[in-house]
Amino acid sequence: MIKEELEKYANYVENPSKELIQEVNIFIKKSKLYLKNSFIKELQKYLFDNAIEYKYDLDPESITDVLIEQNIDLEQTVEEFLSNSYSENKRYNEQLSYAEEMDTFILVLSIDIVNDFIEEYFKNKLNIELSNEDRDYILLRSELRFYSIMGPFDAIALAEFVGISDMSLKNVKNYKEK
């Protein structure tokens, strides 16, 4: 793409109109199931895969014992677990708190969503195929602006948005991707 044209589109995304903001909101709502499945998969990985790694010879049926040992109650809701994870006094992992891991996961997930939005918007609304290099340039110029449009997306807000705040950790364990 020509540099001037690329600058024009980067500025368009960096300083979004109300229409573009509405498009972002629509795209995020369309991505809700993807976000839900990704978030639950990350919870499962953290809670249950890490429990298996914690005890090398542990079979998946014994995970509950390790979670109890780590003071993780499977009857608590996702929101309760996340709230406890974000409190300063509780750390479920001695090397890195779950809240820190989740913040990193949500940042990566947000970048993926913004990336997908930019690609889809340019292709379907502006009829422009972006090269990976052009998309990355626009993404880098606009990502902070997009995050402010999307709002603060911490783990608790994401759980509420995708409708799993009240889901018990036991149900998270047994959840199958839809």
Structure description:
This protein has one domain (3-174). Helices cover 70% and strands 0% of the residues. The protein has 178 residues and is mainly α. α3 crosses α8 and α6 crosses α7 (132-150). It has helices at 3-14, 18-30, 32-54, 63-69, 78-86, 98-124, 132-150, 155-162, 169-174.
In short:
By secondary structure, the chain is mainly α.
Helices and strands, with pairings:
Layout: H1 3-14, H2 18-30, H3 32-54, H4 63-69, H5 78-86, H6 98-124, H7 132-150, H8 155-162, H9 169-174
Helix pairs in contact: 1-7, 2-6, 3-6, 3-8, 5-8, 6-7
Mean pLDDT: 75
The share of residues in extended strands comes to under 5%
Kindly state the percentage of residues in helix.
55-70%
End-to-end separation in angstroms reads 38 Å
Succession of helices and strands:
HHHHHHHHH
Which blocks of ≥5 consecutive residues have pLDDT under 50? 52-56, 89-96
Number of helices: 9
Radius of gyration (Å): 19 Å
Structural class: mainly alpha
The overall strand count is: 0
Counted up, domains total 1
Largest sheet: none
Question: What shape does the CA trace take?
Answer: elongated
What would the keywords be for this entry?
mainly alpha, elongated
